[in-house]
Amino acid sequence: MSEHELRVSKIRNGTVIDHVEGGQALNVLAILGIDGSEGLGVSIGMNVPSDRLGRKDVVKVEDRELSQSEVDVLSLIAPEATINIIREFEVVEKNRVTRPETVVGVLSCPNRNCITNADEPVETRFDVIDSGVRCDYCSAVLRSDIAAHIDV
Ligand SMILES: [Zn+2]
Question: Is 114 annotated as a binding residue?
Answer without folding.
Answer: yes
